[in-house]
Design brief:
The protein is α/β, with parallel strands linked by helices and 347 residues long. It folds into 2 domains: 184 residues, Glutaredoxin, CATH 3.40.30; 75 residues, Serine Threonine Protein Phosphatase 5, Tetratricopeptide repeat, CATH 1.25.40. The chain contains 14 helices and 7 strands. Strands 2-1-5-4-3-6-7 form a 7-stranded mixed sheet. The chain starts with a helix and ends with a helix.
Length: 347
């Protein structure tokens, strides 16, 4: 091989290495080179970020635990690590219910300012550890960042996964497999359900619903309503369109109509956050303000970073005459909305 060919080869190798660790959004099936499922987790000392005390990884043995290794030295890696932390926050109640400890390890010696920034934006109160001199990083052979490591109560590697759009679902599935709650076949079937071809009518309903959502994003609710109505003509059980018409009816001062649409929408999709928020608004408008507040405070446990949730809670506190609490919720909603706009600009 001539010098020119060798140089080209080195460029390709360097590019691949960068994609693996820094720039790719493609997940690796197993992001560790030096260990494999079933192997003991190597001994290592971590440093508690807050207390600066040394903590042996061995001390977590006896119960299953999850470790998220993350870094933020590159913009793309920072965005992915932030999303991984948010995914971990979403699945945290599931893990806590099963008494699974959660560790987050900044594995690339990022600055304190950068660590504080990422953890602040993630919104979680996770315990953060440092990996002095990247000792554990090297022993595991991490080549994808961020990377999750799931360890069984025997201290052996149960699973590992790199970044992907379905991190929370994949982590939940691996935990269910570890604890014997589900088989791998069951988890795989849930992660990759058989795709059923939609009818032309269903496809048209999807297009109308999606156009309605676009109109809402553009601040054109009057144009959105006909799109949702067309979607419902083609797919009467379209929960999203039902909820959206319910919420928009509420905006138009039509509480009875709003109640009908919201009731059906939430019957089909009881976990719809948008529907639950509008249902609380409906209750508040009917005089059940304290009940509506209690409903929204319950939703805050898992949706603390949702701007509309804080805004509506602010309006309810205002109705109760609790102005300090109302202002605090308004401020929180504004800050979250502003932060979301900044993140979109960064992307």
């Amino acid at each position: 091989m001539g010098c020119k060919g060798m140089f080209a080869g080195l460029i390709v190798v360097a590019a691949l290495a960068f994609l693996a660790v820094g720039g790719s959004s493609v997940a690796s099936s197993f992001p560790f080179r030096e260990v494999a499922p079933g192997a003991p987790v190597p001994a290592a000392l971590l440093t508690d970020y807050k207390t600066q005390q040394a903590v042996a990884l061995e001390s977590f043995r006896g119960h299953p635990f999850v470790v998220l290794f993350w870094g933020a030295d590159l913009p793309a890696k920072k965005r992915r690590s932030l999303q991984a932390l948010r995914d971990l926050l979403a699945v945290r109640p599931f893990l806590e219910q099963r008494k699974i400890a959660v560790l987050t390890v900044n594995a690339q010696d990022d600055s304190s300012a950068l660590i504080d920034e990422v953890m602040g934006k993630a919104g979680g109160q996770f315990r953060v550890f440092l990996d002095p001199e990247q000792t554990l990083y090297g022993k595991l052979g991490i080549f994808v960042m961020p990377a999750f490591l799931l360890v069984g109560p025997d201290g052996k590697v149960a699973a590992g996964m790199g970044y992907s759009h379905d991190l929370a679902e994949r982590l939940r599935g691996e935990v269910e497999i570890l604890l014997g709650e589900k088989s791998r076949e069951q988890v795989e079937a849930e992660l990759h359900p058989e795709v059923v071809e939609k009818s032309e009518s269903e496809k048209k309903a999807d297009r109308h619903r999606n156009m309605g959502l676009v109109m809402l994003q553009r601040g054109m609710p009057d144009s959105a309503i006909p799109e949702f109505e067309e979607a419902l003509k083609l797919a009467p059980d379209d929960a999203v369109s039902l909820v959206e018409i319910g919420c928009l009816s509420l905006d138009q001062g039509k509480p009875e109509q709003a109640g009908r649409f919201l009731a059906k929408g939430l019957e089909l999709a009881p976990d719809s956050l948008r529907g639950q928020i509008c249902q609380a608004r409906l209750k508040g408008g009917a005089g059940a303000v304290e009940e509506a507040v209690a409903d929204l405070q319950g939703l805050l446990l898992r949706n603390a970073r949702h701007p509309e949730l804080h805004y509506v809670l602010g309006t309810l506190f205002e109705k109760l005459g609790q102005m300090d609490r109302a202002v605090a919720e308004y401020r929180k909603g504004y800050e979250l909305l502003a932060r979301k706009d900044l993140l979109h600009q960064a992307d």
